[in-house]
Write a structure and sequence with these properties.
Length: 101
Amino acid sequence: FHYLLMLLWILFMRSNFCGSIDGVRRPVSELVYNAVMAFVLVFDIVNIKEGPTRLKNLLYYSLITTEHGVLMYFWYRMTSSNMRVWTRPPTSHGVTVPGTT
């Protein structure tokens, strides 16, 4: 899902990284470049096109934060309570003993 969003975002920017000096576009090369850059954007943000980046960075990090929050919510709901030892409140000694609540 994230890869498709990044690919659509790059296609929407309409970069011309693989074009020639005289302005001839190379659509196949550009599509391969966009596919690779979308994979890179899964892990980190890269400035693909010149221009202001504040809004792009805000959008990217908001999307990442939302995705991580949703994934953590579903993980928390789907795992058994025995697997969530780190979420239990500490004991009086400050050590959580597995198997106790």
